[in-house]
Amino acid sequence: MKLSGKVALVTGAASGLGLATAKALAEAGARVAGFDRDAERLQQLKSTLGDQALLVSVDVADEQSVATGVARTIDSFGALHVAVNCAGVADAAKTLSKGEPFPLATWNKVIGINLTGTFNVIRFAAQAMAKSVPEGNDGERGVIVNTASGAAWQGQIGQAAYSASKAGVMGLTLPIARDLAPLGIRVVTIAPGLFQTAMVAGMPDNVSQSIIDRMILYPTRMGQPAEFASLVRLIVENSYFNATTISLDAGARMQAR
């Protein structure tokens, strides 16, 4: 699918992977609806993208919030062709710590945003994409890109909720791709490894370097958000990507901690 003139929705657009993706899609000629709970940081994205962007304060785990955000996107831009799910949290806790069980509120928050939130966006985005005019010989109407994680199969200590949520995102990729194939909508998931985002930005240099030395094969550095965004663009533009999860991790192998 050619991005020029298309409409793309990006969740988690105020920072990290989502911010880089929103910028990359706009640079490719798409109009971008950026969804995030952080309304203040969204305004910074607006100043960067200008009239190409619609910024909407959205809680992906809330049904009405997502429905309203997608409706505003259609009202503003007339269609929806691409949806990229980058919103996520990584709250951690051990299953049992100092005699206390994993807080269920933490579990529900992580699953609610990372997994339920992803599916919530997918279902409303697919509904909008199904109304698009088919494009090209393949009759393509839309592309959905989700974000999993290497933690889906290499979860570290304290990552029970995070790993489960990301494994769930991987698991929904194929059945949803099968559901949407007759409509000309593709579904692909990216499983990034260790990236230089807000989740790791607060680490002392010696700690982050230790992680790089122990876990990343080559190149021996954290991934850059622009590299994630570049893969999103490739997935959208190459119509033979579908129903799969792609690791983007420099060969990283997560250790227990």
Provide an overview of this structure.
- A hairpin with a 2-residue loop joins strand 5 (96-97) and strand 6 (100-101).
- The strands form two sheets. The chain has a seven-stranded parallel β-sheet with strand order 3-2-1-4-7-8-9, sandwiched between helices. A two-stranded antiparallel sheet has the order 5-6.
- The termini are far apart.
- The model has no long low-confidence stretch (mean pLDDT 95).
- The chain has a single domain, classed as Rossmann fold (3-Layer(aba) Sandwich).
- The chain is α/β, with parallel strands linked by helices and 257 residues long.
- The longest helix is centred in the middle third of the chain and has 26 residues, at 104-129.
- Helix content is 46%, strand content 17%.
- It contains nine helices and nine strands.
Instruction: Please summarize the sheet with the most strands.
Output: 7 strands, parallel
Task: Estimate what percentage of residues fall within beta strands.
Answer: 15-25%
Count of separate DSSP helical elements: 9
In percent, how helical is the residue content? 40-55%
What's the rounded overall pLDDT mean?
95
Number of strands: 9
> Taking strands numbered 1, 2, ... along the chain, how are they ordered across the largest sheet?
3-2-1-4-7-8-9
Category by helix and strand content: alpha/beta
Name the helix and strand elements from N-terminus to C-terminus, one letter apiece: EHEHEHEEEHEHHEHHHE
Calculate the terminal CA-CA distance, rounded to whole Å: 40 Å
Briefly note the CATH topology name. Answer: Rossmann fold
Q: Could you give me the name of the CATH homologous superfamily?
A: NAD(P)-binding Rossmann-like Domain
User: Any idea how many domains?
Assistant: 1
CATH class: Alpha Beta
The CATH architecture assignment turns out to be 3-Layer(aba) Sandwich
Q: How would you sum up the global shape?
A: globular
Radius of gyration: 18 Å
